[in-house]
Each structure stands twice: as structure tokens, then as C-alpha cells.
Fold:
Amino acid sequence: MTNYGLFVGLVTLDLIYLAESAPKNNQKIVAADYTVAAGGPATNAAVTFSHLGNQARVLGMLGSHPMTQLIRGDLDNYKVAIADLDNNATEPPPVSSIIVTQSTGDRAVVSINAVKAQAKCESIPPDILQNVDIVLMDGHQMKVGAIAQIAKSQNIPVVIDGGSWKPGFEEVLPFVDYAICSANFFPPGCHTSQEVFAYLNKINIPHIAITHGEKPIEYLWEGKTGTIVVPKIQPVDTLGAGDIFHGAFCNYILRESFPDALAQAANIAAYSCQFFGTRRWMNSKL
Structure:
């Protein structure tokens, strides 16, 4: 059975370099490897969801600048559809430059994200949720956050990628079924994981999880807390690991329990970190 996912948020062009280290001031370095791919949390999640046998669509700002052809080509290669929130935009898409440290897999990122490319609520296509089984929102297009409320009214589960707190999340959270957050996600007044769990639980979000990189995932489900151990690996590249985790979670939660979906997603994300870039892991069998 094929599932259909809608992934709402940031669409970028990622220029990814593998090097001994990030350059210091006034230093020039030569990369050991290089790749180009479409990026952004929702976009990478959509590619992962599609790779795992589903149909995915990204809803984001793209436009008609010549550089968008690189994004379109990459997403077409991975069978991900695009719903453009502004076909008439002529500005270049957001570009991220990423340097991955060869010895550790750590990454340094320079990006403009979606600050200069915010869509309007009226840009939401009227039939965008037709036949959709799950929605993921990464918080980079908050002005189309009304999709969460519409999805909730149609009993479509809503997942948020809580990479970091963004203004406007407070309007989306009451309609969220799965809050999957990073250790850097701190709502107003929150400074610890316990405070984040309390904040989200008070909003009555039924499934909450906080990832901690290579450390165990914490979760709250049906009043019970628990942890999921993350596979131990030697990372080659941690870029996009969280995005890949969210895309895999959207795949598994449609058929597994909450803890099992978290564990399966952690396996996929850990596996992806053993390859350079956000795509090469897809060319090898788990």
C-alpha cells in the first residue's frame, strides 16, 4: 500500500563539501569531495519518505530562477513532486553552503533559509490535502501553518520537525499529533528537556519526542516516558540526519507504534550518517 505525504517548509539548494576542516579567516582549502542536492528539513524528509516506497510532495517557495532547475532535477530524480507557493518568484532560491569535516562527520552550515522567501496563507492550493495520509511541517513557512488545522479537521496526522523554536509554532502546535524535536528546540520559558515535555504536554500533543544526536531519544506517549537507544556508528557525515529521521518517521508511524517508529527512524538516520552527502546512503542496501 502506497502512502502519500505532504512536506511543508524550506526548499534550498545545498552545496556540500567534504574537507579536513572548515576554513579559518583568509584561508583557502581544497575539498576532498563535493555534491549538490536539494535541501531543507521538509525537502530532505520528503526524499527519504519517497525512497522508502511512498509518494511525497513538497510544499514550499521555489519560483522560476534558473538555479531552481537544479532543485527540480534532484527532486524529480527521487520522485518527489513539488507544489510551488509562488511560481512567479524570480529571486534565486535559498542556497546553503556546507562543509563536512572528514574525520568526525561534523558539519558547518551557512544559509539564508526562508527568511526572505515567506509565502502567504492564501498561497495554499485548495486541494493540497487530497489523498494525503500524513503532513510534516518544519516551521520555515509559518504563514501557511493553517494547513495543520485543515489537516486536523480531516483526521490527517500532523508531524512537526522541531529543529529549533520559530515564532508562529504556538499557533500550529494545538493541531499537532507528533512533535519530534531536537535538543535545540526550546519554546518560550523552556530551558531543559523536562520543561519542553511539560510545555508540549500541556498543549495536549499526544506524542512527543526529543532527539539528542548520538544519545538516546526521549519520548512521552500515553502518559508514559521512555528512551530509544540510537545505533552506534562511525559517522562520515551528519548533515541532514535529523531531516532523514523525520522522513523515515513519517513512513514508519503509518504502520508502527510510536516507540517502534522512533527506533526504525533512528536506524535509518544512523545508517545515512555513514555516507557523504544526503543522498548516497540511498544507493546502498541497509
